[in-house]
Each structure stands twice: as structure tokens, then as C-alpha cells.
Design brief:
Helix content is 19%, strand content 28%. It has 348 residues and is an alpha+beta fold. The chain has two domains: 3-63 and 160-347, QueA-like (3-Layer(aba) Sandwich); 67-147, QueA-like (Thrombin, subunit H). A nine-stranded mixed β-sheet has the order 2-1-18-17-15-3-13-14-16. Strand 9 and strand 10 (128-134) form a beta hairpin. The longest helix has 14 residues, at 253-266. The protein is globular and about 65 Å long. The protein starts with 26 loop residues before the first strand and ends in a 7-residue tail after the last strand. The mean pLDDT is 94.
Length: 348
Amino acid sequence: MKTSDFNYDLPEELIAQHPLDDRSSSRLMVLDKNTGKVIHKHFTDLPMFLKKGDVLVINNTRVIPARLIGSRTDTGSPVEILLLKRIDDRRWECIVRPGKKVKPQRRFTFIENELEAECEEVLEDGNRIVRFDFNGIWEEVLDKAGTMPLPPYIHEKLQDKERYQTVYSKTPGSAAAPTAGLHFTKELLSKLRSDGIEIAEVTLHVGLGTFRPVKVEDVASHEMHSEWFCFDKTASDIIRKARAEGRRIISVGTTSTRVLETVASKDPEMMPCSGDTNIFIYPGYEFKCVDSLITNFHLPESTLIMLVSALAGKDNVLNAYKIAVAEKYRFFSFGDAMFITDTKEQHE
């Protein structure tokens, strides 16, 4: 299977540069994963495709202001650090730009006398282990010094940083938003609960690796990035009971999907657990937990479009994307949504 098999043509003007005023007013393409049939709706129409007893699984991670702009202490030249994964109270795995000259013991200043850092180690993939020295509470210092690390395809400044958070975000740690969840409002979630839809929360801290292109032509040779997840007892109890009763598990986003499939792959009983996952889902993968998926429209040749294709079939997905382009859907993080499901099930 080739990476180029997942390419498609996308006019640049269809890449959404800002969120809509009303989160839930985005368009919703419903894709039947078995037939490839598409239905055009709006996200507020989602309840008509769900039924009592369905379990909606959301990722409650919260994006941190993970982009730090500072200067090298020795030369004063500018430096950018992107926080990827927290190692302990002061050390993070980071992307450092420009990186070639940043060797161990290089020091940086972000806010004088408040936040400084030192490169401790250069990893094989070019990332750095950086130790931060700061006064006060880390979260408060980071909020003052950092900015939201918006994806590279978004060129407009975000006016309200809360619009790059889901309304249910609560566990800080992501370098990017779980964007499928950006469409939900508190009112819509309340409506779903009143309709008998059960909601389970998991956590996966999204890394910037989610935006990295697949650089090998043979899909199976791609080395997937690792991200930290938590599947707690509450989520485990909900999922296990629903599966035992034959109810649908509907994942909100590829991140929630990766948590559920990681857990199910390691433990068919799906008991509580946490840790790192580098699960890579592409066509040929057999889903062990997820029945349906709410997601956005993803970059060509990305691991995300490969995951979606594993659930709905590559030909169905690429045809749906072709239709989305023709119908001028908005793409990527701030774009429109897709619900991949078996449309027959809503009538059963």
C-alpha cells in the first residue's frame, strides 16, 4: 500500500483559516462506511443519526500554549521551542527551531528572571530534551510566555484562544486540539444526553506529530509518533457495559479512536489503563471497539486519512473527499465534519 494512494487535490481556498462563530453550525457529511453513500447535513443535525444507548467517546485533553519564542542566552539569536511531551516537572521533549546549532548545554531565555531553559539531549529524530527553569507555578508561567501552536496551514491569527479548545477540555497537555470535538457546544451535548446518548471521556494528549507528513512511500514502513493516553475506570465501565449489550461505540475524533483501539488491542476486556501509544491504523486494520467515527477532513497522505480509510474503505473516503471539494466543504482543523457510520443502524 502506497502513501500516494491517499492523495487528493484540494484548492487552498478550502482550508479553513478561522472557526465559525457558532461551533455547531459547520456542515456535516454523513458517509455510509459500507456503501459509500453520502448525505449532506449540518452538525446540529447529528442527533438524528444517533439513537438511545449509543456511547459517544470524547477526548477531554486541553491544549497548552506550547509555542515558546525566546533567544539564545549566548548569542541573543531567536529560538522557537514547541513542547511535545512532558517528562517530569521541569523537562519536556521538544522541537527546537533552528535546531542544527542547538546542542546540549545551550541555554535560552524567554522571560528574564522568570523562564529560562537548557537543552539536555538531542534525540535520534532531532527532537530535544529541554529542562526549564522558572519561578512560580509552571502553568501560570507557560500561560504568560507561550502561545497556541496552530497548525502550519492556518495563517490567520486566532482572536480567541478558547476556540482552539473543545467545550469539554479539562486535562492540560496537548500541543494540538482534538479538532473533531470543536463542533460540539454545551447545548448540543445536553441535547444528546437528554436523548439517551451516553458520553464517555478519555484523554490523549495530541502531539505535533499528528501534522507530520508520511515520508515513506510504503505505508507499512511509517514510524508512528507516540502520545500519552488515559483510559480510566469510569470510561472502562461505560464501554464494557455498552459492548456487552451490543450498543454502538461512536468515537469523536481520531484521537479517541486511537485510545479505544489501543486498549482493545492490548486487553479485550478493556480494563482501565494509561501509558504511551503509537498505534498506526490504516486499511487492513480490523477495528476491535469503534463502530462509528465523527471526524474532520484530513490532510492528503496523512496518517489521519489512512485511519479514516481503514474504517470506511479508501475508495469510499476518497470519493467522499472529492464530493466535499466539489461542494466546497471547509477542510482541516477549523473545517467541517464527517460522520462515518452505518446509516442503516439509525433505523434499527
